[in-house]
């Protein structure tokens, strides 16, 4: 069974600023710092933030779902502002998924605003039963919201100086 879920959120910052946060490693560092209730640790296993980079995400004990997973950056298109990451070890793969891919796309809305479109693509073996809550876009939407708030705070701080 193949499926996908999507979410869009207006960020109220220029697309270039949003891409600077979401297009590389910065978002991983931010969620580790600002979401300790969800993320115990985000570790760089391999790479420098480009295609082929592998991160290990360790979730805080008690968070529903996997305890950890490794994700690999499989596509980064700075011109189109698209980043795709795929779970390559542990996590959702241990829970019956054969594919769990996240696509982040920063869409320019104007000089001072952009939209973050997030998509989760997944595949599950027909014979597997998977907890439907794992197919929710809500945890990813929460990460995007944390990023949005950070971008707005950072921008306000710069403008105040």
Overview in brief:
With 161 residues, the protein is α+β, with helices and mostly antiparallel strands.
Q: How many helices in DSSP terms?
A: 3
Just give the CATH class.
Answer: Alpha Beta
Order of helix and strand elements from N to C terminus: EHHEEEEEEH
Overall morphology: globular
Biggest β-sheet strands, sense, barrel: 7 strands, antiparallel
Give the oligomeric state: single chain
According to CATH, the fold-level topology is Alpha-D-Glucose-1,6-Bisphosphate, Chain A, domain 4
Question: What structural class do the secondary elements suggest?
Answer: alpha+beta
Using DSSP, what is the number of strands? 7
Please estimate the helix content: 10-25%
Which CATH architecture is right?
2-Layer Sandwich
GO molecular function, one term: protein phosphatase inhibitor activity
Family: Belongs to the BetVI family.
Domain Bet v I/Major latex protein: 3-129
Protein name: Bet v I/Major latex protein domain-containing protein
